[in-house]
Amino acid sequence: MTAPVGFCSETRPDSCGVVLFGATGDLAARRIIPALAGLCGKGLAPRNFYALFVGRTPLDRPAFEARLAAAAAGAGGRCARALLARARYLRADYDSPAFYRELSAALDALDAEHGVEKKRLFYLATPPSAFEPIALRLKDAGLLSEPGGGAHWSRIIIEKPYGSSLESACALDSGLKKAVPESQIYRIDHFTGKETVQNILALRAANPLFEETWNARFLDHVQITVFEELGVEGRASFFERMGLARDMMSHILQLAAVTAMDLPEGFRDSQFKEQKRRFFASVPKPGPGEAAGFVRGQYAGYAGEPGVAQGSTTETFLAFRLLVENDRWRGVPFYIRAGKKAGRKRTRIDLAYKKPSSGAFSGTDAGYSNVFTLNIQPREDLSLSMVTKHPGPKQCFTPRAMNLAYREHAEEAGAPDDYERLLLEAMAGDQTLFLGDFEMKFLWDYLSPVLKAWEAPGAPLHLYPDGSAGPAAADALLERDGRRWF
Ligand code: BG6
To answer: What is the average pLDDT score of the chain?
Structure first.
């Protein structure tokens, strides 16, 4: 295996207890429990560690074990058993002060049992409306205090949706901050925990070939595609309230940010966040005309999904053009599309270099010679297309591509996945990969005019066949600029 070169840093999680609120819910089962099991089974969790699962459903130990084992099955039986050995369940009544006293006593007992000293990560996998009341009750019970010196700590992890509008998001944020300051709030966007997303910054920082050409002088445009094969899969009631834009915009913006932000001096917290802040500050929010140009699509079979309202205009597809007003990117549009039931799953970023302006190839209309593609998932590779001479007696051109698989060795496959990685970062007290309050605010500032435009009577909703790459209107978005999707 090739050894790492140069700068190398490691996340060292502190000994701690994870307290998972909403432990019997969907998010816990799909993402958080498998991640906790993965950390325990892969030996990545701290040596002194426990998990306290908290939910409204009454569960005795055998019922709890069965649920946990089922949720953790994807991580493998060994991982599930490793987590079970450190897991407890506590039935909750989130509104009752008595429950928080019980919780506090349970945590003290678990601390003593596992050699943890009041270091607690409260993961609120609950509906957002419960964030503030739970946080305030935790505070009242003395569970969120952080005496100086860092010997004891408490952190709150929350997940999107951070509200459903600018107003509700701001209210959510100020409500939460009545209980804890920003330094104790960890807002997850799991895309930031993906290896291949982090690799974008590494690639740029370490390879002048890319970073020196990563700008308006060399690039023609950028495309970001976030397609999923699945539809709403039993989440129709959630989706009917949210729609794809609210559900996926945070992920999209994170991909745009790591692609387009200026490189920080270091990859850790404040410098990183500062560059991200500057990037978002350079993205103008869409005016009414531009907002109306955002393409809203719906897969044809959506109307027939159980739980979907008759005549629903909820979008399952979105395409738009994002502009960045700074010296690096002015004049380089970012075309973005995301959708459910949009063909096979693929998340990728394509950077199209300008076409040759002189020489024998310049007069031809053979598309872009150089496209640098970063496949984020499920394929994890990089490819650079180029045009070479076609082998043979004639002087002809032929397009070729260089491919680089991101993970080449079995050992690399054992690296933490997105949720595992983010849990480790939170246990280490590093907020770099978590969203700052300014990002949440930007998201809603950016999205609000679009949502408003879509509410207007007669705003177009473009149907697309299930499994296709979205409606024709998404193609037209690029065709107007003389371009097409890759
Ligand atoms: C979630 C969305 O945040 O991300 C889902 O709520 C979506 O609707 C999922 O399917 C996609 O994440 P991933 O990691 O599977 O690409």
So the answer is: 93
- 425-447 residue pLDDT tens: 999 999 999 999 999 999 999 99
Nearest CA to ligand 1 atom 15: 228
Residues designated catalytic: 251
CB proximity list for 247: less than 8 A, separation 6 or greater: 161, 239
Q: Which atom of ligand 1 is nearest to the CA of 345?
A: 16
What's the CA-to-centroid distance between 248 and ligand 1, angstroms? 7
- What distance in angstroms lies between residue 239's CA and the mean position of ligand 1's atoms? 12
pLDDT, tens digit, for every residue of 332-345? 999 999 999 999 99
Nearest atom of ligand 1 to the alpha carbon of 226? 16
Cα angle at 435 between 430 and 439, to 5 degrees? 145
345 C-alpha to ligand 1 centroid (Å): 11
pTM for this model (two decimals): 0.95
Q: Give CA–CA dist 271/448, Å, rounded.
A: 28
For ligand 1, whether the C-beta of 228 sits within 6 Å is yes
- pLDDT for the residue 413: 63
**Alpha carbons 474 and 476: distance in angstroms, whole number:** 5
Q: Which domains, ranges and CATH numbers included, belong to the chain? A: 2-188 (3.40.50.720), 192-410+433-479 (3.30.360.10)
